[in-house]
Amino acid sequence: MNTLTIKLLGGVIGVATVGVCLAGEPELAEKSVKPPASASKQENIGVATGLAVGAAAGGPVGALVGAAAGAWMGDRYHRLAVARAALAADLEEVRTDRTRLSQNVVELNASLAKEQERGEQLDLTLSHTDDVETDVMFRTNDDSIPMSSMSPLLKLGALAASMPAVRVHVDGYADPRGPKDLNDALSRRRADAVAAVLASAGVPKEQLLIEGHGSEESTCGDGDLEGYAFDRKVTVRLERGGSQSVASND
Question: How far apart (Å, rounded) are the C-alpha atoms in residues 240 and 121?
């Protein structure tokens, strides 16, 4: 075996030794995922180890071969370790995002369940009857809504607004005293006033069916003051389904 072969063999031995040394050092690169500005620690170890072993086995030539090969292998080990660390970080981020997404899905399902329960409760209000009805009473020749009726009207309006399939009938009435034209106009103003309160509670215009009936449905006899009091009213009725048109009494 000639001298050059022996020296090159020394370099190969140095490279093999570098591989053994670096095999136990991958965790050194995992501490940093950013490429270093200078040679990595694995590369420095490879150069030093390759240089020492190559020099011992093959002299100066072996030292150069061992150092070069050691540097290459050290850099390769470093890059692989950095890539592995970066991949582990990406995997952890994916796991975190998946956990967050699962939590969002759970919260959304809970919210939908609450809304469904609320809708079922509201619909239960009309489940045993075709409509819900209330009356707003008025003073003689007056279309101002009494304060005592405001809160019930707003609550009824909120209920109707939450149920798009419900139609809200607003029917105004007057007692039989006075001319027919005056009573017709008065009953319509009363109905419009009540409808305005319902609209302020969120009831869309297309759900409202407004009509003034005047005194045409009164059954009171002359001088029946108590009966007159019951004629001066607006009836609000929530009804499932029905026409979407807005009635009028011009």
Answer: 15
Return the CATH class of domain 126-240: alpha beta
Q: Tokens in use for 147? A: 């304060």
Give yes or no for a contact between 137 and 231, defined as CB atoms under 8 angstroms apart: no
Q: What is the pLDDT at residue 110?
A: 77
Cβ pair 8, 44 in contact under 8 A: no
The model scores a pTM over 0.85: no
DSSP 221: P
Which residue's entry shows tokens 């929530």?
238
Order across the sheet with 208-212: list the strands. 131-137, 233-240, 166-172, 208-212
Tell me the pLDDT tens digit for each residue of 54-109: 455 545 545 555 556 666 666 776 788 788 888 888 888 888 888 887 787 777 77
Q: For the stretch 79-117, what's the b/e string if a residue is b when 16 or more beta carbons lie within 10 angstroms of its beta carbon?
A: eebbeebeeeeeeeeeeeeeeeeeeeeeeeeeeeeeeee
- Cα distance between residue 248 and residue 185, in whole Å: 11
Could you say which residues of the chain have pLDDT below 50? Answer: 4, 6-15, 18, 20-37, 51, 54, 58, 61, 128-129, 242-250
Closest Cα to residue 123, out of 242, 243, 241, 246? Answer: 241
> Which residue's structure tokens are 């009171």?
220
* Token code pair at residue 34: 């950013």
